[in-house]
Amino acid sequence: MTEPTDNSRPQPRQANKRGAARLAAVQALYQMDVAGSGLLEITAEYEAFRLGKEVDGDLYREADPQWFRAILAGVVENQKTVDPVIRQALTDDWPLSRLDSTLRAILRAGVYELMQRTDVPVAVIVSEYVDIAKAFYVEEEPKLVNAVLDRVSRRVRGEGRGKGAS
After folding, report:
1. What is the pTM (predicted TM-score) of this model?
2. CATH (one of 3.30.420.10, 1.10.940.10, 1.10.510.10, 1.10.260.40) for 14-157
3. What is the pLDDT of residue 95?
4. What is the DSSP string of 66-124?
């Protein structure tokens, strides 16, 4: 049986195990932000009940558990350095505090990877987090994620996907 598709909305690419881990990390960061859950509690919950499991009729994709843990712990441990980098990349009329929790989680995970995972190409990180943004948003947010991660990649790695330097 196939699921009907909504042709008016572009469908994001299917995630590989690292992509699924990134999505799960964003969801876990969101949950930590909204519910005030702790790192150990949320990591255990996701690994026991979500990664590769069926939840409320939805099947979570199999994810790389080490990648999931690394992103989640990395964002939490480095948030004091990650958040200022995001703030610098945002425009003055869009402070970090104005962004909703999902968008903050996407940007924190993406910026953490750009800063700490130099073994992963910039283009991979940016496109994966833009795809995650497309899974949650239709309008401007994926463009914002792309712009912020591009600005950050130029600043922390000296490379970006867009044209021109910022």
Report:
1. 0.83
2. 1.10.940.10
3. 81
4. HHHHHHHHHHHHHHHHHHHHHHHHS-TTS-GGGS-HHHHHHHHHHHHHHHH-TTS-HHH
